[in-house]
Amino acid sequence: MSAKRIGDAVGDCLATRCLEAALVSHKLAHAYLLVGRDEDAKLALAAALAKSGNCRGDHGPGEFCDTCSSCRQVDAGGSSNIRIFGDSGTLNIDAVDQFILYASVKTASSCLKVSVFRGVDFFTDVAADRVLKTIEEPVPGNVFLLLSQNSRRVLPTIRSRVQIMKVERSAKMANLHDAASATGEDTSLEVLLDFAKANVSLSETVGRLLRMRSQNSLRDNATAGLRTLALFMNSVLRARGKVPPLAGISLSTEPELARVNFVLDESRVGLFLDHLGERLKHVEQNVNPELVLTNALLELRRMTTHE
Ligand SMILES: [Zn+2]
Questions:
Q1: Which of 14, 30, 91, 253 is 20 to 30 A from 201 in CA distance terms?
Q2: If you measure from the C-alpha of residue 6 to the centroid of ligand 1, how many angstroms do you get, rounded to a whole number?
């Protein structure tokens, strides 16, 4: 049986190469932020790291046998050297407590303990502070893997204290559709940001949103654009501390959105979001997508004034 490397788990990418090199040179960072839409790839990488750090087989540094008792325990979910907390779609405060508790227990010497937390995108300031305290005073032999779907949703305090690595399966394994929708959301938010800052005209903004994913129909693009408008509004309000975090939507601030310098008429937000719901239905009912999107953006513009 030949030894395996981390790269065998998710394919060769910058993240796997970086971790392999760090293991070989014994220079593993104490905390990594693993970013990417592919949750399975990040978890596979975490498991491979736990195997590499604890394998009892005979092989070179940074490798693992995948057959010894330690490797098999990782696969079976029974290893004490790796534990996964949190959820990729929401924040669970109890999970934060359990993560901190697990991470602060000393490991046997020569063991590598991998403490994984999913859904760092949803950390509140309070949760982030507590986790950072743990990360910055790690017990020896502990490595933290914080998992995020979108690094721009992760609080800057976290981002500045960890090594950020994008994890994606190699092109062959990658789900191209997911990759496309991931860039789509980010790019759409930027388009709305430009519009909100009045850098770009209404018609140009509508055009950009409708052409966002060229392989999709105008209708699908309009639907995605309206959804992004809702996300945009929620993010702006959250960034200004105006609404409590909502379940299922990113709880952390969008740093770029927090800096939008416009005056928002907040009394109209509720109605604006109601209208978005109606507009989504209109698109479904085959109302001209360009018209629907234009009206939604006009309403956004009427709610905002620039200094
Ligand atoms: Zn092994």
A1: 253
A2: 12
Residue type for 190, please?
E
Q: Which sign does the torsion angle of CA 265, 270, 274, 277 carry?
A: positive
Instruction: Please state, as a whole number, how many other Cβ atoms lie within 10 Å of the Cβ of residue 216.
Output: 17
User: pTM (2 decimals)?
Assistant: 0.58
Neighbour count for residue 57 (Cβ, 10 Å): 17
Q: Give per-residue pLDDT as tens, 255-286.
A: 556 566 677 787 888 888 889 888 988 998 88
4-166: what fold? Answer: Rossmann fold (3.40.50)
Q: How far is the CA of 10 from the centre of ligand 1 (A)?
A: 18
Q: Distance from the CA of 99 to the center of ligand 1, in angstroms?
A: 25
DSSP-derived secondary structure letter, 259: T
Q: Check: CB of residue 225 under 8 Å from CB of residue 209.
A: yes
Residues 6+ apart with CB under 8 A from 167: 10, 13, 15, 34, 35, 36, 38, 41, 42, 45
Q: Does 176-306 carry CATH code 1.20.272?
A: yes
Contact at 8 Å (CB) between 79 and 54? yes
Give dist(CA 187, CA 181) in Å, integer: 10
Mean of the per-residue pLDDT values of the chain: 83
